[in-house]
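Students often ask why we bother encoding 3D structure as a string. The short answer is that it lets us treat folding as translation between two languages. Here is a chain of 680 residues written in the first language.
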Amino acid sequence: MSNPLLAPSTLPFALPDYATITDAHVREALEVGLDEHLAELEALAADETSATVENVLHAWERSGATLDRTLSAFWVARSADTNPERDAIMAEFSPRLAAHSDAIMLNRGLYDRLRALADRAAAGEVELDEEDEFNLTERLRDYERGGITLDDDDQQRLRELNAELATLSTSVEQRISDGRNAAGVHVTDEARLDGLTADEKAGLAAAAADRGLDGWLVSITNTTGQPILASLTDRGLREEIFTASIGRGLSGEFDTRDLLVRMARLRAERATLLGYPHHAAYTHEVACAGTTDAVNDILGRLAPGVIKIAEREATALRARLEGESSAATLEPWDWQFLAVQEAAESSFDTDRLKPYLEFERVLTEGVFAAATALYGITFVERPELVGYTDQARVFEVREEDGSQVGAVVIDPYTRPSKKGGAWMTSIVDQSTLLGTLPVVTNTCNVPPPAPGSPSLMSWDNVITLFHEFGHDLHGLLSDVRYPSRAGTAVPRDFVEFPSQVNEIWAWEPSLISKFARHHETGEPVPADWVDALVASREESGYHTLELLKAMILDQAWHQTPLDALPTDGSGVEAFEQAALEKAGVAFPLVPPRYRSAYFQHIFAGGYSAGYYSYLWSEVMDADTVAWFGEHGGMNREAGEAFRRELLGRGGSREALSTYRTFRGADPDVRHLLSRLGLDG
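And here it is in the second language, the structure alphabet:
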């Protein structure tokens, strides 16, 4: 059988032919694609005719089709359903892909070709429209930031640094995933699971059976805080689970500390080589924030107020714990459990919603329905199309007139072969130049249903599903010329903005009454519960502080000069503690959302020095929520404006310019401060 990755897919939407693609096909296609891409770009660089949009920008965007097609198909399949061969492919090709990138970015002929087009445009010999000009400007900036002006020795060192960093990133990712799976807590006494429903216990029993164990297995999620801690009454088991979570990567076979220290040191060296004081400065330069000072300013402004809120919450939880046991001292593993009890009295306990949050209904009557109400698009499942796992489902997306928008692949359930967290990827980028429609994925880690039972979601799971679908909409509703600028190809601190905006529709009362129905009776969630849920919507000090701590750790690793970083893994925990104390957020009852040893976002996920982007994007999110409120909320007119002026623009122009065109002004931070309870 011929390799299906070596030619464009003939399936609808150019969906990769996952039914026939093998790991061997991936390996072969990567080999072919690397050579093919370099040959195409070498021809572009050697072209002696006058530089034009067509023979420079268009030719560049058309190059590397086999490599792009293969990587897009492989990356999500490996992340969502890995195996030893896929891990081996990733380990082998990561440094080769880094070298491939260097071969392009350090090619003076390619840079000169871009420069020639820019010079002709400046002289009025070539006309560039907005998308052409932005694409050209960004490519030139990439070269100027990527080492094109370095001498030969420094360029060689840069290649070495990039290759080693690529290898280390793959190794860290694998150790984090393996460590998370290994950290699961085995329970043999059912009495210790008091507080869980029968369906939840059945899910834990199925997880144990999958590992060949009797009893029940509490799997560890990627974050420090474990959702199950909110339900378990057994304080000893809560401590055991929390300890397993927070101890990942700190010892034994899956210790990540030496690897991450090496990465931080290599990034610092690379930044210095490129003329920056540290890696964070290099990263922030091309973000919406613009400077490290701007990032530090917003983190520093929030810290004191967030600590006060967390301290106030802790006081209430201590009082509750003392009422149950005067000898007990409030510990981190108590927080989530006691907070649920506190909420049941003072606001609304979202755990009460679980029987009403069946995955299929939340997806169709919630997530999809909101997109229809806002953008007019509809979703039709295509069961004959095969996704990257047997649990992935493909949905065709249509306009109101029935024409095709693209496709979305939904893969909701956790499994041992899937990395932690939730994410969106693009398998096919939208492009009017190439005539391609977008294919995007939505990959989550919702607990799978036990045999014969429905998949019931926590409220946090619901918010995550809406969030990731916001990324999907950014990709699906893209309307740009160049595939490299489609959808989510925007600065890191802008990319989370549309996804956070999409979360607001999970709180829309008219929508909740449709997607929240009892899985057995079909009865809608009681109206007074909906009112209480919406009224209780506010950011807790715990949630804000755990995120803020992770953001501060990220900046500490990437703003610290090389000579002040730890020299090996033994210094990781002391470095963490010093960074949190310096920022005034040590507060041990609320751990960072991710500790360094399992902080995949920044050591293997592209967020190095950029994890603050969730907060920066939330400034725009809160401001946009206010805009929707001013324009009638969830309706077609408001949705069409957001689609046309913001989602559709993708990365085809400067991100804040896109925002200002949509909003008519810069984002107003006051809306976020009010949301966080810090406006006073």
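Translate back mentally: The beta strands are 185-187, 216-218, 378-381, 393-398, 404-413, 423-428, 439-446. Keep this in mind for the problem set.
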